[in-house]
Design a protein that fits this description.
Elements (H helix, E strand, L loop, with lengths): L1 E7 L6 E6 L3 E6 L6 H13 L7 E5 L7 E7 L2 H14 L1 H4 L5 H18 L10 H14 L7 E11 L2 E10 L2 E8 L2 E8 L3 E7 L7 E6 L3 E5 L4 H21 L7 H7 L9 H19 L7 E11 L4 E10 L2 E6 L5 E6 L3 E7 L11 E6 L4 E5 L4 H14 L8 H4 L13 H4 L9 H17 L7 E2 H8 L4 H12 L1 H7 L3 H9 L5 H9 L13 H17 L9 H11 L2 H15 L9 H17 L1 H10 L2 H10 L8 H14 L2 H13 L1 H5 L4 H13 L1 E2 L24 E2 H12 L4 H31 L7 H21 L8 H4 L11 E2 L1 H11 L8 H12 L7 E2 H13 L2 H10 L43 H20 L1 H6 L8 H27 L23 H11 L12 E4 L2 E4 L6 H6 L3 H4 L5 E2 H14 L6 H26 L77 H13 L16 E2 L1 H8 L3 H8 L5 H8 L13 E3 L1
Parallel strand pairs: 9-29, 21-22
Antiparallel strand pairs: 1-5, 2-3, 3-4, 4-5, 6-7, 6-12, 7-8, 8-9, 10-11, 11-12, 13-14, 13-19, 14-15, 15-16, 16-20, 17-18, 18-19, 23-24, 25-26, 27-28
Length: 1279
């Protein structure tokens, strides 16, 4: 790219010449593609200084001059070569004609400048090219997806041990990252904001501008941070956002409108996200300063003056403008504040300059519908302010004038109550006390002078009146104005009536808790001894629980709401409660009372600052948590007479949350002498309770109700304290505590409180799943951390859609392990990274089957308990547990017939809530047989039983019309074949290998002779039930119950771990039979699992032998059952698809394998090592006699046939139609037969006995973003 020519004195410093001619030289910067010390040095300098110097450039130089000119640059060789070729073709011939060098240089400069002038620069709309480059570098270095957005980056040093590493800190929405490259060594750090437990900042001579970031695992130190104040403020903001998201489980959404409005006032080098976050912080401060709704956003602010008619002065201050409000705050704190809703504005106009002077310069007059006028002057750009105000006024919604029929529609069935104090404590004007009369007169005078309602001038005089208490007549209205609740009610007209109708008659956990607490709410007041008050309280609490299910209902809300209902109407009380829960005391009343716990830490910090001796004493007694929660949750309403606490509510709505801390500090200061003398917590609590119960309100118009306390001995007279005096003392001693100080401390302690809650949640989750998994200790802890990280990743990268059932999400009775769930994509990622079975080419299919197996409730999500259960079995389970799990993964619902491995779709949730019977019967744990001696002993038992089995054949045939179950028949027939199969196998191996092997028999569970006489109708009924068909009345048993017309197995309710670990024989027999399609897929999975195993060939040889034997066993069972007329209703589950095949088609399954067989076999029937493997079965078993089996084929062997058929069938999208064959629909086999056969092969037993470590793959998966594509030997990574 051509650039404007610039002089270069040292042409060869840090550069290497690539090409040259008499007038030009093409250079490459050292450190780009070259080695050596110079290259490392230049690379380090560029990294530390964040140099964006392009690696290629072209200089113009003349032989007689030491001065060169920089004329072109490029990021790659192709671009610079293009410029070089243009120079040689267009300039070299012309330059040769010049007689002196100066003329040649002037010509080159003019030519290049003309080229530069013709280049049309494309400017970035939102971000500069510099930031775009940094974003690209950030994603490449840390393997971040495009969803992870970079906010800003700063130069700093990271302390690795005692050595600082100069590099760059990258701050993104969800991570803090650091990268350094010094002398060939890399250092990387990735910290999730949700992992940070503490932030600290220090500044000293040795480590200037040091930021300490602590996590549960380590502490990280960053020093010499560029723009230290800005960077630390941004770190605090991002960490605070992460803590809120951790509690609410939401993701970050960029506000495009805010960034658009503010980008004209911010640096062009600042990213749109940085502008967004700065605007969020300013809007938050704007809302808190003027008590505005939570969705109000600051549009801009401007210095100006306000004419105050009550003292005829111009007050300097700042005007703030948003889409719905014009606000003004004086430069002197609390001198005057004005809030003007745009809905109340009638006209806005310019005011011409007056002859009085410049004080009225560039003025704007705002007139409200209430005939109040506000004059703002000395704007720097009055026209722009007027334009913005006019634009917002134009966008104001038209006022909705409801007809009387519409307004009364919701009240036809429900009559909303006015302020209850007007119904139950009526007093005429002559009954008011003199103090109350004087107080009302003072407020009337104030309204006349300063205005009334939302647009009133709020001055220090207003605060003085509030401290003395608001008269009952005006209290409700002033609460609505000072809290800002009137704005929300005005913008949501009719909302309360609508939500009451929606929540009417609805039942939930919140409504049940509300009903329990209704009669505990201010029971001493007559309003709540009546159905009118109780019904109003019920409606308000239920409506808010319906509005905000995140909070629902929390104890203490009933006490606050009952007091609100005394002074305001139902609708006003609802909006006041909304303001308290969502703005004034955020997160106070959710299930985890996070806000109250944060303020408890803030209160502790304030006590340490203002009452240090008291802090040490209360910490020793352990009273801090007890007093703060009980005082703050109800805003002192539950600890002192409510007639006194309402005065504190007056100040609370006017000045915000700081009032609670001031009052609490004043109470402790008042009783400090007595508290310091206490020796135990009970004595201290008695002192505080007595003090609070004896607080009085001399100006109260409500009859005082005596509080009876068991802590106060009878006859003990306590001196009373007036609440007005207590409030004035709190403002006098602790009035310098501002809401800004409180917010800063909340930000500081939110990290600690939220992480403490997360640690407690973690302990509860691990305790709840400990009995359902074989993972223990650190491994279980690591799995939880990984599972939670994957869940949070899906939340803030929006990679999966989390459940939206809020009623279930915030259900306090919900198990702990249900808090975090993952979908199939996340489960697959973890399964492939952690499972020892995920080693083959088709591990993804196994992960899908595992997901289906775990997803019992069909919600398309897997919770933590289900995840650790299956990981524990795969990594730590016994041989029997692992084999049973593998068996289940190839039965419905885990296995789906005709599933296409190449096109696996994410499971979808069903549209019905009906609980259907499980297609899988319950199972028991098979005895673990791990050595050959046990197998031989069991084989001898089978031989001894042969005669008994043969004698019972005739009995079975006689009962043919009554028999419906297959299991016993298969066992009887199988016992006849097993000895003969082993003889054939041994003889074939002896002929092929020239060796003799001892005969082996397949152990069969027939040790109980009584089992042969069992009537088979019950097991048949079991099969029918699992198939979904309705059993006959005669076949019903106590194991089933009728639910919605469907018989459901009682044992289906058992957990997954109970299924795999159960060892009851009756359950053991209820394991579903496996058909031929499922068996083929099971064997394919085994071949896939053994791929790349160190004992691969022995494992393949073993499963080939076992597979052939099991095929023969299945054939025996099939031929036995073919003698009966078995109806479709008695066929086993899983074989209901149309599969027509005869036994003789078995030879078709032995198709020739491809040359690239993945199982270690080639087309010649030999394995990859050259050892000859037996040939395939060419003929099926034709005749089975009592003492003789006729051998099939010429020198045929059966071991490789099953492997080939597994491979061929698995390659086809229709697994039952490989190589022109069709699976046998009548063929089936039991889990007992499979497991007993598996235990005869030592390589198989050894494989399934191996214990796998979980912590190492978990850490590897967590640190995967630290692994670069081309990592150098000196890579140092930390997470």
């Amino acid at each position: 790219m051509w650039v404007k020519p610039e002089e270069v004195l040292l042409a060869n410093a840090l550069w290497v010449n690539e090409r040259a001619n008499p007038y030009f030289v093409l250079q490459k910067r050292k450190g780009y593609g070259g080695g050596g010390l110079a290259g490392l040095l230049v690379g380090t300098i560029d990294t530390v200084l964040d140099s964006k110097t392009p690696p290629y450039r072209i200089l113009h130089q003349t032989p007689g001059s030491e001065l060169s000119y920089y004329i072109s640059e490029a990021n790659n060789k192709k671009e610079i070569s293009k410029d070089w070729e243009w120079i040689e073709q267009n300039l070299m011939h012309t330059l040769a004609e010049f007689e002196n060098d100066e003329e040649a240089t002037d010509f080159v400069r003019c030519k290049i400048e003309s080229l530069v002038a013709n280049i049309v620069e494309i400017k970035e709309d939102d971000e500069t090219q510099r930031f775009v480059t940094a974003t690209r570098k950030f994603r490449k270095l840390f393997n971040m997806p495009k969803e992870e957005k970079l906010v800003n980056y700063y130069s700093c040093s990271y302390w690795k041990g005692k050595v600082p590493r100069q590099g760059w800190m990258y701050l993104s929405i969800n991570h803090l990252c650091f990268y350094s490259f010094l002398l060939g060594r890399e250092a990387k750090v990735i910290i999730r904001w949700t992992d940070i437990t503490k932030l600290e900042r220090d500044n000293n001579m040795l480590f200037p501008d040091t930021v300490k970031i602590s996590t549960r695992e380590a502490s990280h130190y960053f020093s010499m941070v560029m723009h230290s104040s800005e960077s630390y403020r941004l770190i605090e903001q991002l960490a605070n956002m992460a803590m809120k998201q951790l509690m609410q489980e939401g993701g970050f959404e960029e506000d495009k409108m805010i960034s658009f409005r503010t980008k004209k006032k911010t640096s062009k080098k600042m990213s749109s996200l940085k502008r967004d976050l700065d605007a969020r912080a300013r809007s938050e401060a704007f809302r808190q300063a003027f008590q505005l709704p939570v969705h109000e956003k600051l549009d801009g602010d401007e210095e100006c003056t306000l004419w105050t008619p009550y003292n005829k002065q111009h007050v300097n201050g700042r005007l703030y403008l948003s889409s719905n409000f014009i606000c003004f705050a004086s430069r002197v704190r609390d001198l005057v504040t004005v809030i003007i809703p745009l809905r109340d504005i009638q006209v806005v106009e310019k005011v011409d300059n007056s002859a009085s002077g410049n004080l009225i310069y560039n003025a704007v007059l705002v007139t409200t519908k209430g005939k109040m006028s506000f004059t703002f002057a000395q704007f720097s750009d009055r026209d722009f302010i007027l334009e913005r105000i006019s634009d917002f006024l134009f966008r104001q919604p038209e006022s909705k004038c409801r007809t009387k029929s519409q307004s009364d529609d919701s009240e036809e069935q429900i009559k909303f109550q006015p302020a209850l104090i007007s119904l139950f404590c009526r007093r005429e004007s002559d009954e008011l006390s003199p103090k109350e009369t004087v107080k009302m007169h003072l407020w009337d005078v104030h309204f006349a002078e300063y205005g009334k309602g939302m647009c009133m001038y709020r001055t220090h005089r207003t605060q003085e009146l509030v401290l003395k208490g608001i008269p009952d007549k005006y209290r409700g209205g002033m609460w609505m104005v000072f809290s800002g609740a009137v704005n929300e009610m005005a913008s949501n007209e009719g909302y309360y009536g609508k939500i009451v109708q929606e929540s009417l008659g609805k039942s939930s956990i919140a409504t049940e808790e509300i009903e329990r607490d209704l009669h505990r709410s201010l029971p001493e007041h007559p309003a709540f001894q009546n159905d009118l008050g109780i019904s109003a309280l019920r409606r308000v609490l239920t409506a808010y629980a319906w509005r905000n299910p995140n909070i629902g209902y929390c104890q203490a809300m009933n006490i606050v709401t009952s007091v609100l209902l005394l002074y305001t109407s139902e609708e006003e009380a609802f909006w006041l409660l909304t303001a308290i829960c969502e703005r004034l005391l955020p997160d106070y009343y959710n299930t985890k009372v996070v806000g109250a716990l944060i303020d408890q830490s803030v209160f502790e910090d304030l006590i340490r600052t203002y009452l240090p001796s008291m802090h040490d004493k209360l910490e020793t007694l352990g009273l801090l948590s007890m007093i703060s929660l009980s005082w703050f949750l109800t805003i002192f309403l539950s600890v002192m007479p409510f007639s006194c606490a309402v005065n504190i509510l007056d100040c609370f709505f006017y000045d915000g949350a700081k009032v609670m801390f001031q009052i609490a500090l004043a109470i402790l200061d008042e009783k400090s002498v007595e508290l310091l003398a206490c020796n135990e917590d009970g004595e201290a609590m008695t002192i505080l309770c007595k003090y609070l119960e004896n607080i009085t309100n001399e100006d109260s118009t409500i009859p005082t109700v005596k509080h009876i306390s068991s802590l106060t001995p009878s006859g003990d007279v306590q001196s009373s304290v007036d609440v007005t005096g207590l409030i004035e003392q709190s403002y006098r001693l602790f009035g310098n505590i501002s809401n800004q100080v409180v917010d800063k401390l909340r930000l500081q302690y939110r990290l600690r409180v939220v992480q403490t809650i997360e640690d407690s949640t973690k302990r509860n989750v691990l305790r709840s799943v400990a009995s359902d998994t074989l993972c223990k200790g650190k491994e279980l802890d690591d799995l939880y951390i990984l599972f939670k990280e994957e869940y949070l990743t899906s939340c803030y990268w929006r990679t999966s859609q989390q459940p939206v059932d809020t009623a279930d999400k915030f259900d306090p009775s919900r198990p702990y392990y249900e808090q975090y769930k993952v979908d199939y994509d996340q489960f697959k990622t973890m399964f492939l990274s952690l499972s020892p079975w995920a080693t083959g080419l088709h591990a993804g299919v196994l992960s899908l089957r595992a997901f289906r197996y775990l997803d019992e409730n069909k919600d398309n999500m897997i919770n933590f308990k289900e995840f650790v259960h299956i990981m524990g079995i795969m990594c730590k389970g016994s041989v029997a547990e692992r084999l049973k799990l593998l068996y289940y993964l190839h039965l419905p619902p885990a296995f789906v017939n005709d599933e296409d491995e190449e096109d696996v779709e994410t499971p979808t949730s069903p549209n019905t809530d009906l609980e259907l019977p499980s297609p899988l019967p319950d199972t028991t744990q098979v005895p673990d047989i791990k050595n050959d001696s046990q197998v031989k002993d069991r084989g001898s038992q089978v031989k001894d039983k042969d005669s008994q089995v043969k004698n019972k054949d005739t009995q079975v045939k006689v009962k043919d019309s009554q028999v419906k179950d297959k299991d016993t028949q298969v066992k009887d027939k199988d016992s006849q074949v097993k000895d003969k199969d082993s003889q054939v196998k041994d003889k074939d191996q002896s002929e092929a290998e020239g060796k003799t092997t001892p005969p082996s028999t397949l152990p069969i569970e027939t040790t109980d002779p009584k089992q042969d006489d069992v009537t088979l109708a019950d097991s048949t009924a079991n099969t029918l039930l699992l198939d979904g068909s309705t059993p006959s009345p005669d076949s019903k048993s106590d194991d089933y119950v009728l639910e919605d017309g469907i018989y459901v197995n009682r044992r289906r309710k058992r957990t997954l771990s109970e299924r795999l670990q159960s060892d009851r024989k009756e359950d053991y027999k209820n394991v579903g039979r496996m058909n031929q399609v499922q068996f083929i897929q099971l064997w394919k999975t085994l071949y896939d699992m053994f791929l790349d195993n160190k004992d691969q060939q022995n494992l393949y040889h073993s499963i080939a032998s076992i597979g052939t034997l099991l095929l023969q066993i299945g054939d025996v069972g099939k031929r036995f059952y073919m003698q009966k007329s078995i109806s479709d209703e008695t066929q086993s589950y899983g074989s209901d698809i149309p599969l027509s095949s005869s036994l003789d088609s078995r030879s078709d399954l032995s198709a020739s394998p491809d040359s690239g067989h993945p199982f270690g076999m080639d087309g010649t029937g030999a394995d990859n090592s050259g050892n000859a493997l037996p040939s395939t079965i060419t003929d099926s078993v034709e005749t089975i006699e009592n003492d003789k089996i006729e051998k099939a084929g010429n020198g045929s062997n059966v071991e490789s046939g099953i492997g080939v058929s597994m491979y061929e069938s698995h390659q086809s999208s229709e697994s039952t139609k490989s190589a022109g064959s069709k699976a046998d629909g009548d063929w089936s086999i039991t889990f007992e037969q499979i497991m007993a056969s598996m235990l005869t092969e030592p390589p198989i037993v050894a494989y399934f006995e191996q214990q796998s470590d979980i912590s190492e793959p978990v850490q590897r998966m967590r640190n995967r973003r630290l692994q670069t594509k081309h990592s150098s030997p000196g890579l140092e990574a930390t997470s």
